Q: What sequence folds into this?
């Protein structure tokens, strides 16, 4: 087929994809990051609207959001104010989808520049069957726009430096905008400036090796232009970034160091265990990618490696080599730096356009080199077969595409309890909508709704419904009528053994057979009343209330724990020990119960038993520092 025909097909497919993504974004759930970043974007808006007198955007001790440029979030919020948009998150999701589509389009144009429209069409196809990217493109205004800036910067850098039309004014403008855009979202964008000059040096080496005339005057001119591009991009990047504006050099570089070693750490499930994000194994990102990237894309990478020699001979070898470098370098860097890593490879979504680029070239080159029609047909059939699994997942589990796991993980069912699934809390949006309808059907206009992440926006139109945020394990210690609990921070043991969601959940949101979120209706308030009595020192009342609560709710380990506290305070030591062990039957990894059992055993003089509890606790959570203290006292006592 001629390149002209392929061009028209490409334009048509790209347009259809835009419509599809824009429409799909209407149904996306609200992520936890969105709530935080939208709130910060409002603070940024207030900073500029007040002429800099409102400085709340500069004080973010818990979220550390002042270190993010998050320009795309800020632009979305500016438009929300200017256009007086009421449905804030739906508009944000449309903006996210637009950024995702531009990422796809730019990557396809990159492929067309390197190889032709056939590769461009393959890029469109591979993105379309990529659930992780397509899912994030619906509601991620941080990682998807940064991926756009990263891919665009590499594309325009290579095109500017290696194109025959070097130093074009239009090319320089696109380069400034793309680098500025990436840097204005994350300080990690400074890496793109380093790439720019690295690419320039590589172009000089390439021309020397090819024994071409270097044209010294032309090279100096290019270097001057690159310096101008760098300065212009740098200062353009901070225009919507209040923290950077306070000290454009020191604060941007400081933000980069914060991003490289993010101060907040999180616990998450990896390989069936709960680990701290700053102590993940070196292969955390590569393995997460291997388990969630569709095998259709992985197959393209395999073909690229198989035909690499042919591709490098027939194509622009140095350009493909540098594209490979921009994928490998960030991965190697975080492995060496032992960076704080969490939420699968969401933070490395910016690598995916380049991965798709190489995979598309792998398929395109294979189709070119296979001369027999039967071999071409078999390759096409293989591609379609490998694409079936991710497409089926996206269709069956819309709008939860981002939690996809491929066949290597056994799909999402195999990943459940071994890896994180809905780490972005998106299912709470659907759960909230269900609960709103449920309350309406029952004519309930006043209730307390608790959730493991804020649902204030979802219930904004119901003034009689008050919302709050709670931790799942502490739900019995809070007053609520209904609770929305996501599967984040649930013990792997409880997930694998189907001890969560609770049996009395009134609604569950699923992806395949994996529960993502549960809606609970309170069956008794004795658990909460018992906790309040315990805190007030009324142990006898607390004991009675906990006994009554456990007749109705017997699958909440925290009720058993607080019951044991009340019994211990009432000197019923044997019963307290027994109750705590019942808590461990529900959740063997329940840390405070293990600590308490250790303390009871130590108090009773059973030092070996106490030491075993402390060691088990530290095996679950190496940062439970009180256990170290108690264990050290036992060991020191034995050594005397």
A:
């Amino acid at each position: 087929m001629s390149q002209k025909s392929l061009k028209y097909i490409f334009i048509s497919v790209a347009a259809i994809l835009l419509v599809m993504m824009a429409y799909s974004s209407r149904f996306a759930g609200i992520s936890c990051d969105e709530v935080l970043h939208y709130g910060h974007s409002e603070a940024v808006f207030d900073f500029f609207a007040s002429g800099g007198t409102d400085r709340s955007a500069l004080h973010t001790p818990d979220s550390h959001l002042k270190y993010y440029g998050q320009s795309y979030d800020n632009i979305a919020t500016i438009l929300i104010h200017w256009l007086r948009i009421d449905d804030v998150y739906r508009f944000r999701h449309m903006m996210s989808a637009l950024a995702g589509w531009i990422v796809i389009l730019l990557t396809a144009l990159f492929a067309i520049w390197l190889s032709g429209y056939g590769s461009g069409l393959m890029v469109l196809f591979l993105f379309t069957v990529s659930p992780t990217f397509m899912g994030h493109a619906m509601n991620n205004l941080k990682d998807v726009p940064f991926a756009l800036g990263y891919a665009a910067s590499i594309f325009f850098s290579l095109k500017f430096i290696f194109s025959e039309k070097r130093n074009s004014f239009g090319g320089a403008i696109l380069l400034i905008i793309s680098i500025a855009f990436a840097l204005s979202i994350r300080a990690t964008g400074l890496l793109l400036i380093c790439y720019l000059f690295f690419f320039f040096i590589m172009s000089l080496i390439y021309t020397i090796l090819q024994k071409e005339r270097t044209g010294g005057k032309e090279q100096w001119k290019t270097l001057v232009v690159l310096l101008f591009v760098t300065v212009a991009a740098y200062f353009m990047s901070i225009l919507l970034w209040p923290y950077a504006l306070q000290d454009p050099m020191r604060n941007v570089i400081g933000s980069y160091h914060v991003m490289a070693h993010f101060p907040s750490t999180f616990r998450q499930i990896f390989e069936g265990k709960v680990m701290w994000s700053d102590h993940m194994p070196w292969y955390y990102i590569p393995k997460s990618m291997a388990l969630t990237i569709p095998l259709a894309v992985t197959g393209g990478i395999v073909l690229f490696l198989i035909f690499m020699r042919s591709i490098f001979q027939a194509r622009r070898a140095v350009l493909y080599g540098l594209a490979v470098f921009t994928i490998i370098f960030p991965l190697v860097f975080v492995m060496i730096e032992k960076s704080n890593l969490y939420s699968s490879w969401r933070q490395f979504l910016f690598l995916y356009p380049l991965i798709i680029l190489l995979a598309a070239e792998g398929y395109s080159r294979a189709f070119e080199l296979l001369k027999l029609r039967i071999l071409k047909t078999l390759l096409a059939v293989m591609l379609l077969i490998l694409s079936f699994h991710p497409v089926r997942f996206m269709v069956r589990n819309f709008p939860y595409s981002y939690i996809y796991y491929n066949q290597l993980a056994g799909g999402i069912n195999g990943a459940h309890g071994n890896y994180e699934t809905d780490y972005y809390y998106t299912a709470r949006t659907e759960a909230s909508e269900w609960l709103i309808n449920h309350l309406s059907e029952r004519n309930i206009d006043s209730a307390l709704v608790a959730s493991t992440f804020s649902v204030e926006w979802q219930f904004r139109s119901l003034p009689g419904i008050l919302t709050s945020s709670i931790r799942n394990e502490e739900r019995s210690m809070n007053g609520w009528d209904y609770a929305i609990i996501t599967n984040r921070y649930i013990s792997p043991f409880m997930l694998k053994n189907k001890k969560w969601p609770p049996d009395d959940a009134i609604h569950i949101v699923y992806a395949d057979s994996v529960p993502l979120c549960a809606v609970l209706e309170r069956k008794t308030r004795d658990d909460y009343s018992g906790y309040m009595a315990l805190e007030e020192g009324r142990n006898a009342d607390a004991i009675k209330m906990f006994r009554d609560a456990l007749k109705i709710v017997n699958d909440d380990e925290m009720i058993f724990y607080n019951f044991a506290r009340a019994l211990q305070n009432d000197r019923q030591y044997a019963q307290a020990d027994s109750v705590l062990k019942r808590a461990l039957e529900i959740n063997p990894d329940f840390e405070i119960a293990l600590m308490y059992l250790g303390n009871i055993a130590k108090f009773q003089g059973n030092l070996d038993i106490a030491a075993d509890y402390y060691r088990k606790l530290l095996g679950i959570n190496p940062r439970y520092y009180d256990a170290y203290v108690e264990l050290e006292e036992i060991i020191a006592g034995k050594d005397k």
Summary: The CA atoms of residues 304 and 362 lie 4 Å apart.
